[in-house]
Write a structure and sequence with these properties.
This protein is α/β, with parallel strands linked by helices. The structure holds NADP nicotinamide-adenine-dinucleotide phosphate and ligand F7E. The site of ligand F7E has 21 residues, from helix 4 and helix 7.
Length: 339
């Protein structure tokens, strides 16, 4: 039986990847961090089911000794590094911490692989934030221009992954993934903030959605489709870095409009720039407003991924569009409120 080791198993992608790998017949080892509460809500249903082929271990990618010990003990065939302080906005408040986890953490895993067994395959969770949104559309050849401590730390990880591949002939790949969402998305990312606000309003709660920059554009896909691309990348004969995206991008403003539309609410926009707000056309109630605290010191204005290479090499075909994704997230948030 093949063994996979996932760093960052308790996150959104960790949930979907564990599920996929168990279904594919792997024994999945997940690394969780110690925290003051015992439950890990996202992955409970998988890892606390004794009939499933999986196990959890305490660890932290910034702790090189525990990282080495885990890899020595488990002897996995494949390692997926999903561990990160993954919030771009928060990386401006925690730049050193973000660099340690998102940069040096990757090095710690690569060094451990090099010392334990160079045949272990390695997936690095790279990101469209590397591009910084300076070109109209981005692919594997687009120059990088990260604009946040998060993006810069991930750029280090991108290059160190490539460096170990070339220097030690290790099977290491960067999946340059564009934004991907699901009902398990963290609550402070924009899609989830929107789905929660829509759900609250459907459930008659007196909610106003407070957001920052309405103008930036993102290329959003579904996490379930994207973790499959991660696995496929590790099954290739030769390691290669790939962009994973839908190829379609919309603004935050449009995301908000289409999400409210899903539940039959039409937004009318009033005001300008920082004074812009959205009202419900029917009730005339203010339901969206700008809060300056959600603006970042620097912004990635436009992300749109050219996924032709991943279509060709791993037959990547995203099944869900942003409309499907927001519908699923809103439905789930309504369920959570009702329960
Ligand atoms: P997420 O929900 O924030 O999950 C991050 C995971 O990393 C969590 O399990 C977290 O553990 C863990 N972690 C944080 N610091 C750690 C440390 N020092 N040692 C070990 N584990 C640590 O992120 P995601 O959306 O699933 O994304 C997965 C990966 O893909 C991340 O690396 C992210 O940067 C990258 N990425 C995400 C997207 C996207 O749109 N989702 C796009 C491109 C790249 P806790 O639960 O204990 O916090
Ligand atoms: O922001 C704008 C914000 O935080 C998207 C991570 O998974 O994808 C994610 O990073 C956009 C930005 O995601 C709010 O300024 C406006 O332009 O949902 P987000 P992100 O920054 O694109 C990449 C690929 C990753 O790798 C990351 O790990 O929305 N925005 N108002 C807001 N964003 C947030 N969070 N909250 C707001 O109120």
């Amino acid at each position: 039986m093949k063994k996979a080791l996932i760093f960052g198993v308790t996150g959104q992608d960790g949930y979907y990847l564990s599920k996929l790998l168990i279904k594919k017949g792997y024994f999945v080892h997940g690394v969780r961090r110690r925290n003051s509460i015992v439950e890990n809500l996202r992955i409970d249903e998988i890892f606390f089911d004794k009939t499933k082929n999986c196990d959890l271990h305490y660890g932290d990618v910034t702790d090189s000794i525990s990282t080495l010990n885990l890899i020595k003990k488990i002897k996995p065939n494949e390692i997926y590094n999903l561990a990160a302080q993954s919030h771009v906005g928060i990386s401006f408040d925690l730049p050193e911490y973000t660099s340690n986890v998102d940069g040096i953490g990757t090095l710690n895993i690569l060094e451990a692989i090099k010392n334990v067994n160079k045949k272990i395959k390695f997936y690095q969770a790279s990101t469209s934030e590397l591009f910084g949104g300076v070109s109209k559309i981005q692919n594997e050849k687009t120059p990088f221009y990260p604009k946040s401590p998060y993006g810069v730390a991930k750029l280090y990880s991108y290059w160190i992954t490539k460096c170990y591949r070339e220097s030690y002939k290790m099977f290491c790949v960067n999946g340059i993934l564009f934004n991907h969402e699901s009902k398990f998305r963290g609550e402070n990312f924009i899609t989830r903030k929107v789905s929660k606000a829509v759900a609250n309003i459907v459930c008659n709660k007196n909610t106003v959605l407070e957001v920052g920059n309405l103008k930036s554009k993102r290329d959003w896909g579904h996490a379930e489709d994207y973790v499959e691309a991660m696995w496929k990348m590790l099954q290739l004969k030769n390691p290669v870095d790939l962009v994973v995206s839908t190829g379609k991008s919309i603004s935050i403003k449009r995301l908000i409009e289409l999400s409210f539309n899903i539940v039959g609410i039409k937004i009318i926009w009033k005001g300008k720039n920082e004074n812009e707000y959205g009202i419900d056309k029917k009730t005339k109630r203010k339901i969206v407003k700008i809060n300056k605290k959600f603006f970042r010191p620097n912004e990635v204005d436009n992300l749109k991924g050219d996924n032709r290479l991943s279509k060709k090499i791993i037959n990547f075909r995203p099944k869900k569009n942003i409309q499907d994704i927001m519908s699923e997230m809103i439905e789930n948030d309504i369920k959570l409120i009702k329960n």
